[in-house]
Structure prediction request, 448 residues.
Amino acid sequence: MSIKNEKLAKVMEDVIKRNPGEPEFHQAVAEVLESLEPVVEKRPEFLEKGVIDMLVEPERIIKFRVPWVDDQGNVQVNRGFRVQYNSAIGPYKGGLRFHPSVYEGIIKFLGFEQIFKNSLTGLPIGGGKGGSDFDPKGKSDGEVMRFCQSFMMELSKYIGADTDVPAGDIGVGAREIGYMYGMYKKQRDEFTGVLTGKGLTYGGSLARKEATGFGLCYFTDAMLKDHGLSFDGKTVVISGSGNVAIYAAQKATELGGKVVAMSDSNGYVYDANGIDLAEVKQIKEVRRGRIKEYVDTHKDAVYTEGCSGIWGIKCDIALPCATQNEINEESAKKLVANGVIAVAEGANMPSTPEAIHTFQSNQVLFAPAKASNAGGVTTSALEMSQNSMRYSWTFEEVDAKLQGIMVNIYKNASAAAKEYGMEGNLVAGANIAGFLKVANSMLAFGVV
Ligand code: NDP
Ligand code: 2IT
Prediction:
């Protein structure tokens, strides 16, 4: 695919020129701009009044040194980032990723996606993302704590409950949020909802931990039902075994699916009897171990090194929940050849453009990340509401709101695709529906 509208193509050309060496960021912007072709034909003012030029440029990028001392007494230096991308419809909102692959381009791609995802939730949250090239893997609790404290000592200057509200992402879960919240509170001497994904004893929301995975399945279920299908009796393959993957597996199972494979960055396990999720939780959440340990207790299961092989397993529904570009064209073709009926993205941008094209041109139901994984940030926004009210809802109340919002996102993305002549194309529909709310707000603000 390429951009035909000359002005939009020029925006893309400038993005590439001004942000060299950031392929993931280019990929995310190109997909959105391609989707906007029919929108700017109907509404040329978005180009004429500079809304799209402003939208692709982050409002602010903060980049900082994160020094900390390891258990051997050596000084380590990592790099921290926060991209405050767009605040047109609310305070910047988005996760923090701690992974050695993090650099500015990754945070910009994630921050850009977050603008549209957050808009789709219908809640008042702008787009942002942050993180560090710190690798929590193999680090002691003390090392993780010292890193998080150093990271927050600097980040705390730029965030706040009404300004910018970070949360978790890859490598950032309850433990890291706890250490960061503790340091923020000490420095600022205030108890506010400045982070989400907090522990339940200090302002966290029930169902936030489950939200992204549950939300993914609620979205997928809505998409399947719209086509007279359901999870019931379907074979499901899920990549990753982190926060998103675990709760996607739980909900997919509750909805009648059979999850037969899960993975981590080293390899995948296949269990024809259905994955024993209690064991996966024990390995990943309690022991912080590796997925291969699963076969120690489940002798019928098979472990295979390497992560892309998981897409060669025959399944009806595939839920990529690990990382960006984990499904390439070759993997997509294998899934199609094996008869996959639906692919729904739990991770951010897990399918390459060629993989998406393969799914769409073979009539596979395809749910794009910024719509289907919006359940996490939705529930983060619900956590912010509860913090503002100094009140908390029950698990059932939060879960019901989450479910309602995910079904709405499906309906809105689906309706936008139809309205702009691309019925069934949820990639275009999600990009357009997410864009319009932000762009109309920016138009109202003028040039700021
Ligand atoms: P976790 O850190 O809890 O888990 C990440 C999982 O993905 C692990 O199994 C990890 O394996 C695997 N993984 C990470 N990087 C790679 C890689 N480069 N190659 C192969 N596997 C990899 O993160 P989350 O579950 O929170 O996040 C997973 C995805 O979901 C990310 O794309 C994230 O941006 C997205 N997301 C997360 C949300 C949330 O609320 N947490 C909300 C919306 C989207 P290993 O342990 O070996 O590293
Ligand atoms: O990618 C995402 O939407 C997240 N990592 C969750 C963001 C949030 O603020 O809860």
Remarks:
- The CA atoms of residues 68 and 76 lie 5 Å apart.
- The mean pLDDT is 98.
